[in-house]
User: Which sequence fits this backbone?
């Protein structure tokens, strides 16, 4: 069985997807981590600059870096290894938010990463979260969700997340960062963030993590 969860930045998709996968004993595929890893490697290893991420990107570089990455999911969560090194801690920064969002609009990146995700998903019960997982990656998924919350609440969550990494941002900066990324993800011509037509929409503006999880479970079981 496949369960997809799409939604805007900082709506809590990864947290809920991981909790749901644990509860159901399913595999969890964090699709954003793939875009993050590729963006990070193109900049840190291949010497791309931010403008290059849209203009210089090519199949050779995409294949080179993705083929050297390994996705691992266990009870501790989702990890990406690059040539045996766990690069996950480098992937949740503000800079990598931008790199991932930029390359997410590139058709050849999407084709490559989607093919890789479909192979990983074969013969598995899984929960996957992202921007287009119910519309494009797994259009035949048994359950599709769209998880959202108000911009104000998502900005606070993002601010708190940054704070945990020692990065202090004002609420105004957080709202701006979250909204800029959302606008880009909604507006891009290729595989934009979208609400699947058969999705269950859950707004967790006023829900705790456990209450959000219960909303999902009510629909699935
Ligand atoms: O879910 P996340 O915040 O880790 O995703 C980071 C960025 O990656 C997001 O802004 C857009 C891109 N992305 C995408 O284009 N498609 C996906 N399925 C997942 C993420």
Assistant:
């Amino acid at each position: 069985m496949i369960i997809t969860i799409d939604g805007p930045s900082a709506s809590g998709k990864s947290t809920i997807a991981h909790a749901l996968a644990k509860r159901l004993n399913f595999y969890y595929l964090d699709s954003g981590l793939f875009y993050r890893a590729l963006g990070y490697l193109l900049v840190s290893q291949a010497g791309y600059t931010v403008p290059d991420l849209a203009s210089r990107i090519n199949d050779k570089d995409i294949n080179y870096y993705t083929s050297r990455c390994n996705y691992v999911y266990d009870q501790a969560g989702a990890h990406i290894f690059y040539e045996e090194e766990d690069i996950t801690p480098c992937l949740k920064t503000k800079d990598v938010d931008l790199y991932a969002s930029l390359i997410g609009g590139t058709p050849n990146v999407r084709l490559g990463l989607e093919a890789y995700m479909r192979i990983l998903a074969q013969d598995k019960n899984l929960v996957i979260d992202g921007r287009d997982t119910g519309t494009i990656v797994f259009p035949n998924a048994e359950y599709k969700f769209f998880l959202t919350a108000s911009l104000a609440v998502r900005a606070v969550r993002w601010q708190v997340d940054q704070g945990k990494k020692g990065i202090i941002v004002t609420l105004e900066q957080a709202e701006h960062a979250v909204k800029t990324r959302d606008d880009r993800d909604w507006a891009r011509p290729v595989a934009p963030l979208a609400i699947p037509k058969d999705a269950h929409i859950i707004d967790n503006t006023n829900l705790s993590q456990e209450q959000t999880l219960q909303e999902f479970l009510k629909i699935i079981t």
Q: What stands out?
A: The two ends are 13 Å apart (CA to CA). The chain has one domain: 2-215.
